[in-house]
Write a structure and sequence with these properties.
The complex is a heterodimer of chains A (324) and B (154). Chain A has twelve helices and twelve strands. Helices cover 31% and strands 20% of the residues of chain A. In chain A, helix 10 packs antiparallel against helix 11 and helix 11 (280-293) packs antiparallel against helix 12 (304-323). In chain A, strands 4-5-8-6-7 form a five-stranded antiparallel β-sheet. By secondary structure, chain A is of the alpha+beta class. By secondary structure, chain B is an alpha+beta fold. Chain B has helices at 24-31, 87-94, 104-117, 123-129, 140-149, and strands spanning 2-9, 12-19, 50-53, 56-59, 72-74. In chain B, strand 1 and strand 2 form a beta hairpin. The termini of chain B are far apart. Classes of the chains: A alpha+beta (324), B alpha+beta (154). The interface between A and B is medium-sized, with 30 and 33 residues.
Chain lengths: 324, 154
């Protein structure tokens, strides 16, 4: 599969990259690891006029720890993240989660920034030109229909990133750099929950740094997929619990991936977890709630019913791990 | 649009006049004739096109050739030194880890990068490392055996 023709830029600073991105925001795409972008280009679902390779920009690949937490440069690869002794010692869940992304080569190539900014996925969208030619173009490629939900007025493509749920559960923030200036927002707000435009980046904005506050509880990440490797999550769950001295839960975060147009927060379950002490009865009751809380669409080969069931099972497994 | 591409492959410098939108895989196979690097799925899902860039395994089908100028690229052709096979290549032959041979270049290069990082891996770690390389003959048992045997006697 040949890549379509494009103009190639290698700016040496984020400012220059942002300027180039601003000049033609619709036709310009940012390239970091390329494991998502080049596949989409080969499938013809995006047709960049210009590619900006961010990899030539120095000083964006770092992991440093300050008083208040961890700072990670957006171009840090998932492999570097998983291999970092600092991450392994103090933020082990981040390393474990990075190892859940695809396989070894993708982890070497893929960057944390790229992983967070990956495109939403759908079984009608991530297909070759030939495959897609049998149907009318869907919302995601600029058409007027959604093949997942026929009468829907919007795109239902699904967010299937691995890193975002864990980082959101850990209250991570992201620093965005643009020609208008910099801003720092909670990672949660990077996601619009709109299938057609999943990221809230403004014109010319580029993700520069991820900040994770010092851990104040326990976090774990569980991923369900058909094969034990390579695949995107069918359902995945990041669970963060902070317990008080008596073993009751003070604060809970439950973030899911693969079930909606962005990383999904299970608010009702978080409420139910607050103040309780984990025993078998509580775990049973709360994990049964998951089926009611989420409503996935059929954007992958898994049926929504199966995904709902598996999300509940993952939650039960997670809570059981925290019980002991 | 064509341009001059400068690549450092298997210890040699090459200047190639070629299209800008080519992947590293296309340049290696079509412009330089290093056909040991295989084109499988061409979408990053099979690992057959794996090459080493600065010692790390990269999927050459998802790497732009223009973006890796000035980096050290090693393909399967560059692994043997002075007519002597690399220990991994020897191990693959001795253990019978080659069936049709299509996945072998990718398997060996992924395994090389992995063994450079973890000289004495467990079986589980080895399986995880090559999990992105698909062997359609399904000869994984021998492949894992071969990789584990490389540093066994040292």
């Amino acid at each position: 599969m040949r890549l379509p023709k494009f103009e190639y830029l290698e700016p040496r600073s984020l400012k220059k990259a942002s300027e180039a991105l601003t000049a033609d925001p619709k036709g310009t795409f940012l390239l970091a690891g390329g494991t998502d972008l080049l596949v989409n280009m080969k499938h013809g679902v995006i047709q960049p006029k210009r590619l900006i390779n961010l990899k030539a920009i120095p000083h964006l690949n770092y992991i440093t720890e300050g008083k208040d937490g961890l700072r990670i440069g957006a171009l840090t690869t998932l492999h570097d993240l998983a291999s970092s002794t600092l991450v392994q010692d103090k933020y082990p869940v981040l390393g474990q989660c990075a190892l859940e992304v695809a396989a070894y080569t993708h982890q070497v190539m893929g960057t944390l920034g790229g992983n967070l900014c990956q495109e939403n996925r759908c079984r009608y969208y991530n297909q070759s030109v030939f495959w897609r030619s049998a149907r009318a173009p869907c919302y995601k490629v600029g058409g007027e229909i959604c093949h997942v939900v026929r009468k829907s007025k919007e795109c239902h493509s699904t967010y299937r990133g691995d890193m975002a749920p864990v980082l959101i559960a850990m209250d991570a923030k992201v620093k965005l750099v643009g020609w208008m200036g910099n801003r720092t927002i909670p990672l949660k707000r990077l996601y619009t929950q709109i299938g057609k435009k999943p990221l809230s980046l403004r014109k010319g904005e580029i993700l520069k740094e991820i900040f994770i506050p010092s851990p104040s509880g326990q976090t774990l990440y569980l991923k369900w997929r058909l094969r034990g490797t390579l695949e995107f999550p069918m359902v995945s769950l990041a669970l963060h619990l902070e317990k008080n001295g008596e073993g009751n839960i003070d604060r809970a975060k439950v973030i899911l991936s693969g079930l909606g147009t962005g990383p999904l927060e299970a608010f009702e379950i978080e409420k139910m977890l607050k103040g309780v002490s984990l025993d078998d009865g509580v775990i049973e009751k709360i994990s049964n709630q998951m089926v009611k809380e989420i409503s996935p669409m059929r954007t992958s080969i898994a049926s929504p019913n199966y995904q709902r069931k598996m999300a509940g099972i993952l939650l039960r497994q997670g809570l059981e791990k925290f019980k002991s | 649009m064509k341009h001059i591409l400068k690549l450092h492959v298997n210890g040699e410098d090459f200047e190639i006049f070629t299209e800008m939108n080519k992947t590293l895989l296309e340049v290696l196979r079509e412009d330089l004739g290093f056909t040991g690097t295989k084109r499988g799925c061409d979408l990053g899902a099979c690992g057959a096109c794996t090459v080493l860039i600065d010692g790390k395994p990269y999927l050459s089908c998802l790497t732009l050739a223009i973006a890796v100028q000035g980096k050290k690229i090693v393909t399967i052709e560059g692994l043997a030194r002075e007519g002597k096979l690399h220990p991994l290549q020897k191990a693959f032959i001795e253990k019978g880890a080659i069936q049709c041979g299509f996945c072998t270049p990718g398997m060996i290069l992924t395994a090389k990068a992995f063994l450079d990082e973890h000289p004495y891996p467990s079986e589980e770690e080895t399986k995880r490392a090559i999990s992105g390389n698909i062997c359609r003959c399904t000869g994984y048992v021998k492949i894992v055996e071969a990789i584990l045997s490389v540093n066994e006697n040292q």
